[in-house]
Specification:
Keywords: Pyridoxal phosphate. This is UDP-4-amino-4, 6-dideoxy-N-acetyl-beta-L-altrosamine transaminase. By secondary structure, this protein is an alpha/beta fold. The strands form four sheets. The protein has a seven-stranded mixed beta sheet with strand order 1-9-8-5-4-2-3. Strands 7-6-13 form a three-stranded antiparallel beta sheet, with no helix packed on it. The protein starts with 10 loop residues before the first helix and ends with a helix.
Length: about 375
């Protein structure tokens, strides 16, 4: 089966991991700092914290923001459920706002209409790797007195109006799952510009431990003493995985270039094919293209999905609207809430896209899709 996404591992990656395994630190060691420093280069200097997953990154971001019971978080339903579920786990109510029909990103107008006096955060999702309209969302968040969070699980390395993802929101989260632009097997990160929020995020990912004597309530015990002032979790990403991530980051530019090349080839191969819409790109963005999301017209998405997979082409659907999941239905969310997102989902299909995809494999995908649609 040709997958819709796949990691790209070289001998340099293997050697980077092996070097850590032969060393003194498997976790909480120097590879973590090196990985975070290299990631900070890609966020335009905004400091980064490595964590165990993209989901953990979102949980850390909401915690650092102070999201809690009684607060509301506005976000897109066209995302993996973690964007919303981690806010609920903080005790907040999620308010889903509709998406732009061309990019699938959070619509600033819909987000503005969803603002109430309880809005604590607005979380944009860079769907498929295309950055959301951050300048407009920044204005919405500013008027609401809310924190702007970027869920950049898809968009590491992307730019918006010549600014890198990571500098566009107050906090930005990343995912390093194997299908993402770079991988640490499992892993994620949070980019946080504000020092106070950074400190809170750092402690939350490490059980809430306070080790600095000047900040402890009862520091007179000795060098071993540590305290917990607020509960946290173990979201530390170990050195073994950070070493893999650092090796991968050194190829991020090449990964981005190959993905862009494949997207251009898909555009050329599928541009005249009836019955589908190709993904949009705003002129002021340079996406990293995690997905190649097409829209299949005339109610044929399920048929196309089944026939492509039967032919060994692992297309995928991204995503079921978050509030369609039973856990949100049980909280009272109803279908029909975001018509544009639901219409997008009804037609969406992701074609295979990853750096090691060959031109011949891509030609096969395009040829079979054409045969199915004709």
């Amino acid at each position: 089966m040709l997958p819709y996404g796949r990691h790209s591992i070289t001998e340099d990656d293997v050697e980077a991991v092996a070097e850590v395994l032969r060393g003194d630190w498997l976790t909480t060691g120097p590879a973590v700092g090196r990985f975070e420093a290299e990631l900070t280069r890609w966020t335009g200097g905004v400091p980064c914290l490595a964590v165990t997953s993209g989901t953990a990154a979102l949980h850390v971001a909401y915690t650092a923001t102070g999201v809690g019971p009684g607060d509301e978080v506005i976000t897109s339903p066209l995302t993996f459920v973690a964007t919303a579920s981690t806010a609920v786990l903080r005790g907040a109510r999620v308010v889903f706002a509709d998406v732009q029909p061309d990019t699938g990103n959070l619509d600033p107008g819909a987000a503005s209409a969803a603002v109430t006096g309880r809005t604590r955060a607005i979380t944009a999702v860079d769907y498929a790797g295309h950055p959301a309209d951050y300048d407009e969302l920044r204005e919405v968040a500013g008027r609401a007195g809310a924190t702007l969070i970027g869920d950049a699980a898809h968009s590491l390395g992307s730019t918006y109006r010549d600014r890198p993802v990571g500098r566009l929101a107050d906090l930005t989260t990343f995912s390093f799952f194997p299908t993402k632009t770079v991988t640490t097997a499992e892993g994620g990160a949070v980019a946080v510009a504000d020092p106070e929020r950074f400190a809170r995020a750092s402690r939350f990912r490490n059980h809430g431990l306070v080790r600095e004597p000047a900040e402890q309530r009862d520091p007179e015990h000795g060098g071993w003493h540590q305290e917990v002032h607020e509960f946290g979790l173990n979201y530390r990403l170990p050195d073994v995985l950070c070493a893999l991530g650092l090796s991968q980051l050194r190829r991020l530019g090449a990964f981005r270039a190959r993905r862009a090349e494949l997207v251009a080839r898909y555009h050329a191969l599928l541009g005249g094919l009836p019955g589908l819409t190709l993904p949009a790109r705003r002129s002021y963005t340079d996406p990293s293209w995690h997905l190649y999301p097409i829209r299949i017209h005339d109610g044929r998405r399920r048929e196309v999905y089944q026939r492509m997979r039967a032919a060994g082409i692992g297309v995928q659907v991204n995503y079921v609207p978050a509030y369609w999941h039973p856990v949100f239905e049980d909280l009272g969310y109803q279908r029909g809430l975001c018509p544009e997102a639901e219409a997008y989902y009804a037609e969406q299909l992701s074609l295979p896209l990853f750096p090691d995809l060959t031109d011949a494999q891509q030609d096969r995908v395009a040829d079979h899709l054409a045969a199915v649609l004709r």
